[in-house]
Amino acid sequence: MLIKFEKPIYKIMELLEATPENIKKAAGLLKKGKLVAFPTETVYGLGANGLNPLAVTKIFEAKNRPSFNPLILHIAGKSDLTKLTSTTDEIIEKLTGKFWPGPLTLVLPKKNIVPDIVTAGNPTVAVRMPGHPVALKLIELSGTPIAAPSANLFGQLSPTTAGHVVKQLGNKVDLILDGGKCKVGVESTIIGFVDGEIVLLRPGGIPVEEIEKITGKIKKFSPEDTDSNPLSPGRLPFHYSPAIPIRFFDEKIEKEITGKKVGALLFKKSHTGTNFNKVIYLSENGDLHEAAANLFYALHELETADLDLIYVEPVPEKGLGIAIMDRLKKAVKKYT
Ligand code: TXA
Ligand code: MG
Which residues lie closer than 8 Å to 193 by C-beta, 6 or more apart? Predict the structure, then answer.
C-alpha cells in the first residue's frame, strides 16, 4: 500500500505498511536526519536520530513542542543502555531484566554522547527499549538510539494508529510506518531517581504496583506536584486533550446537555438513562488493559464525531486505571 500526500509548504509524506523493506527504507531516512513516525506497543512515536541534534530539532518543530520538554531515547538492546548512561545500579538491572522490552522508561544520569537538545539541558536522559518488533527493527537498522515523543501535536491526543498520526502530523513527517493499532494504548511508565530515591514521574503502561514488587514502595508525584518538581514530565497544566470540551460526569449533566450534541466515554457497560448522541465503552467487561488500549482511540473517534461535548466516566484508580485517569484528568483540565 502506498499513499502519497502532496503538501506544498511541507513535504511529500509517505504512509507505508511496516514491511521489512519499508522498515529498511525508514531506517535509511533516519540515518539522513529525517523524521519517521513508527508504531510502538504504547503509542506511535515521532522519531529522529537521537544522537543528531539537528535531526532532533525537527521533532520539536513538527510538534510545536517547547524545547524545555526532554525526549525519550529508544534503544534496541539492553546493552545499549551503557552507551547512554554510566549508571550500573543493581536495581536498574532488575527493572530492565523484568520489564524490557516493554513500556518502562528510566531516567538516568546521561553520558556526553547524548545531545543537550534531547534532554533539554538536564543532566539526565530518559531511555526505553520498546516492546514492538517494528520499533526494535527500525532502531537496529538505523544503528542509533531513536529520540521519539508521541507522534501528536503538542498538548493534543496521543496517536494509537497510523491514521491518528496522519490527522495531526501528516504533512510534517517524511514517512509514517503503519503497524496497526497499538496494544498497550497509554505511554510508558517513567521512573527516575531523586537523591537516591526511586520516584514515579509518569504512570503508564506498566502498573506501578508491578514495579513496586521489585523496588519496594515508590514515591509518586501527582500532577498537582509538578510545579515544585522540575523533573516531572508534562509540567504544563493540561495535556492529551481532544479538540472539543471534555468533562467528567457530574450532577450538572442533565442541565448542561440540553440542546447539545453530546458523546459519552464510558468505562464499562453499565450506564443507562441519559440519551447521548454517541456512546463508546472503553471495555464492556470492565477490563483495565482493554480500556487503556482503547483510550486514545475512543477519544479520537469522539473528537471527530461532530459533537459539542464529551462526558467521560472515571475508571477505578488501580493498575492501568492510574495511567488512564492521569491522562483523562489532564485532558479535562483544559476545559475547566
Ligand atoms: O510510551 C512512550 O513513552 C512514548 C513512545 C513513543 O515511546 N513516548 C512518549 O514520549 O510518551 P513523550 O515525549 O510524549 O513523553 C515523554 C515524557 C515527557 O513528558 C518528558 O517530559 C519526559 O518524558 N522526560 C523525558 N526525558 C526526561 C528527563 N531527562 N527527565 C524527566 N522527564 C523526562
Ligand atoms: Mg506525549
Answer: 107, 108, 199
Kindly report the length of the chain.
336
Cα separations in angstroms, 266 against 263, 297, 313, 322:
10, 13, 5, 16
Average pLDDT, the chain: 90
In CATH terms, the fold of domain 246-333 is: Rossmann fold (3.40.50)
Which atom of ligand 1 has the smallest separation from the CA of 124? 29
Is the separation of the CB atoms in 242 and 295 below 8 Å? no
Which residues make up the CATH 3.90.870.10 domain(s) of the chain? 14-187
Mean pLDDT, residues 212-225: 80
Measure Cα distances from 305 to 76, 137, 182 in Å. Answer: 38, 36, 22
Cα of 65 to ligand 2 centre, how many Å? 10
- For β-strands 197-202 and 219-220, DSSP reports them as parallel
Extract the C-alpha cell encoding 289: 488493559
Contact yes or no for 313/267 (Cβ under 8 A): yes
Pairing of strands 189-194, 197-202: antiparallel
- From ligand 1's centre to the CA of 150, what distance in Å? 8
Q: List the shell of residues around ion ligand 2, using CB closer than 5 Å.
A: 150
Give φ, ψ of 102 to 5 degrees: 165, 180
Percent of the chain with pLDDT over 90: 78
Q: How far, in Å, is the centroid of ligand 2 from the Cα of 128?
A: 14
CATH 2.40.100.10 fits 14-187, yes or no: no
Tell if the pTM clears 0.90, that is, is over it: yes
